[in-house]
Amino acid sequence: CICSSFSSLNADIRAKCLGNIMRVDVGPLGGNNTAIVVTPSIAAQCGFSMKSDSFGNALIYISLQNCFAQNVDDELFTTALQLRLQGNQFSQEEVYQVAETCQYDVWASREVICDYNYMEVSELRSSCPLVSDMQKRSMDAGFKATTIVFFTPEGKKPMSLLAAQQRGYGIGNTPTRLVLRSPMIAPETFMQTIMGVPMRIFKTSTIFEKKWLATQIDAAAACPIQEGNTITWYLPWQMDPMTSSGQFNLLEVHFGINGQKLDAVEMQAREYSVALNDFYIVTELPIGGVGGYYESHIQGDLYYVSYMIEPMLELLWTEDATHEQTRYKVFFHITTHLLPQPLELIDNTVPGEKMFRMTLGHFAADVALMNITFPAEVLSMPDCSARGFNILEHMSPNTSLKVFTLQVPFADPAVLQQTGEGVTVYSLHLTFGLLILDQLVSFSHKAYLEAVVQDIVPPSVSGGCDNHNFYVLVKYGSPGYNFQTMVGKRYMTPSLAQHYDSMENGTHFSFVVPFSAPDVAIEASSTRSRLDIVLSNPETNSQIQELSVACNFPSTLTECFPNGTMTALALKLESVPLLNPSQLTLADPSCGPVHSDDRYAFFVFTVNSCGTTRKFMTNVMLYENEISLPDELLMKKSPTSEEPEYYLKISCFYDINTSQTVAFNTRLRRSEPYAENSKGQLQVVMRLALDDSYSAFQNYEEYPLAKYLQQPLYFEVELLKSANPLISLELENCWATQGKDRTSQPRWDLIINGCPNPADPYQVVFHPVWTDARVGYPSHFKRFEIQTFAFADGKDDMSTKLFVHCDIVICDSKNPLGGICGGQCSNPKQTTKGEMDDFSFGVLQHSGDLICLRKD
Ligand SMILES: *[C@@H]1O[C@H](CO)[C@@H](O)[C@H](O)[C@H]1NC(C)=O
Ligand SMILES: *[C@@H]1O[C@H](CO)[C@@H](O)[C@H](O)[C@H]1NC(C)=O
Ligand SMILES: *[C@@H]1O[C@H](CO)[C@@H](O)[C@H](O)[C@H]1NC(C)=O
Ligand SMILES: *[C@@H]1O[C@H](CO)[C@@H](O)[C@H](O)[C@H]1NC(C)=O
Ligand SMILES: *[C@@H]1O[C@H](CO)[C@@H](O)[C@H](O)[C@H]1NC(C)=O
Ligand SMILES: *[C@@H]1O[C@H](CO)[C@@H](O)[C@H](O)[C@H]1NC(C)=O
Which InterPro entries match (predicted)? Predict the structure, then answer.
């Protein structure tokens, strides 16, 4: 095929010769509402058909033997077209000239074209059965077609050529051929089902006359007609109306799309298949496949598409009897029924991106998005671009349908915002204004989008404590809010969490830290413990929240026992991080802790040891000691060390009345030694009993008493005003003097160091004391008996006075400490501690036989 083509300036118009037809492509016209005005009846009559492809471009199919072709010897066919493109409101009408010459010289005896709007049959005139063989040549010269006879189911219908042309039939005479053309739906055509396939039949006889001679040419075409959404196309390949004998050979079968033949590889790639069975050529075409296209329709506000494709079959057969060849070409325009294509807005929004993303589809290629209506305004496409909505068109893969995508930032004024309950709800109402370009039909689609964004809430921590533990509750923040938890100076690890009995329930986690845990800091007062919790961002390490829980440590650091033992627990303070507790000592540096580790030192000592000092206060005794680093260790420290020294003062109060103990601790700076200055008072009484029953006593007023020599004197010494059963009164020394002064001479010892004077001829007799109505605590009493005597060197006085004195010791019976307190008469030489008082009694020797005593 030798083709020449001309295209005008603006539109891309190309003509193509495709065997016995030519095709003119006019494009691209997609964006503009462009229509080519071709009168349908002229098209059908003259061999034109016009279609648009999936991009809206026009395809004009033109039979080479069309009414307007310039035919040179049935080999070169030139067709000139004037295309009038109707512009839209913005453009003016444009006129294009197209002319194309196609060469075609392989004419079969009969050529049939089935297009969607016409059937064409072209017969070689020389091959027509002639009235007589010898007139064969002369037919070319002078025969003229006069009448056309249509064969219909109702019978023969003859018609003059002129009348037939007026009814829309095309009749052409070329040098060698007769061309008949019928619109697809013409009154003289009829439906016939051939092997189950509906076909339109056009069957004629054309009468040629020349003077008295007449001849006729039969011409028939059978074309499949489109049937809804049939996408399996059955074409019978034995079409009786077109064959004179029944026997013929099918030589070639070609398949094509839009008039263009495809080879096997292309067909497979496009998933087309053509198969031949006993009766049919079966063509299978996938709906939506390449080569076809969709068209939009609006019916009752709903969106539909129909799929269109135009397969072509070209067959070549020979009739056995005549050896005549028939080339048969069918364009089968398939349009499916309307397929509902519900519009769908797919919300692809990822709230974190702060932008609505959506996809609207699916549409045929002939739909344009014109504008978007928001509650407050209507935006055209340029407006939307200016607002950054980024509207794009995408061809959907393997469906030949397209979608629109767009984005609307949450910050755009068209987006509504509502906040509350920890979330922000973004919503967008929009109505898409759409237009079907070819038909200028408007339609719209409403959509509503909503995105809920959790407000970013940081994690938080709270806590408290009881007598034993710190309790910490951490509340997670918004999902995805990462944080790390630091307990004291350590990061919370899974193993530490397990150690602290961590529990987790999806929104919170909690853990329990004992007071004794190493992550707990002891504040300087050492009775307050503090737990620090820090939540921080793991990437930036920036602090999110800090919590310090401080509670008084209720456990006893110092204990005071009634037996005079003190214990003290010295804890390492956070302010003295380098302290080694094992190096701590009491005031006496030789008294170290009984046990210690890196966090504490534990001391046990008695109040009378380790440098403990004692103070007397009203009704209480205060024992104090201190825990610190020994001086030699302090000396070793660098002088620039800022570390405060460790100094813990410990004290015990002993209530004198009740022996209850109170313990407290104070921490003071090093202070001057306390000057001890105290005075005790004990009331002790010594009396003379009337007899050894010790039930009645001499009255004070009766002194001095008169006694005879060797008359027994029953003495009793009592500690008054003490209810303490644990103390005892012991007699250390007792002696007699002549004078009132206890140190005067002469003197006679009665009891020495608790024991009777061994030199005494009439030794002191001790009487035991038993509990009775008067005696509550026998240990508070001592009783002894002596015999009245007189000093030998006494003058011959009518009356000699005798004074008796005693030193007494008050002992702690639980802590006797030996000496007098260890028991009467145990170790005569040992001196003892104890309060001492003396009592003087006068003994009056009257006439040598009367002794008078009185209290001094
Ligand atoms: C529509 O026609 C106008 C005027 O001829 C032209 O400027 C414009 O580019 C056309 N649009 C498309 C999509 O072809
Ligand atoms: C599109 O084609 C691919 C590959 O041929 C196939 O896997 C996919 O299922 C097709 N999608 C649809 C919607 O037909
Ligand atoms: C929006 O586009 C639609 C479809 O073309 C049209 O019918 C409607 O009038 C347009 N609205 C405005 C306000 O321009
Ligand atoms: C998790 O524990 C916390 C604290 O006990 C409680 O307030 C919260 O309701 C619990 N959450 C769930 C989902 O059980
Ligand atoms: C003092 O009493 C405490 C507590 O009862 C006891 O542990 C300690 O051994 C006693 N000390 C002496 C020296 O008896
Ligand atoms: C201790 O004795 C004094 C003097 O007898 C008295 O005033 C005080 O109330 C007593 N204290 C107690 C706690 O019994």
Answer: Ig-like_ZP, ZP-C, ZP-C_dom, ZP-N, ZP_chr, ZP_dom
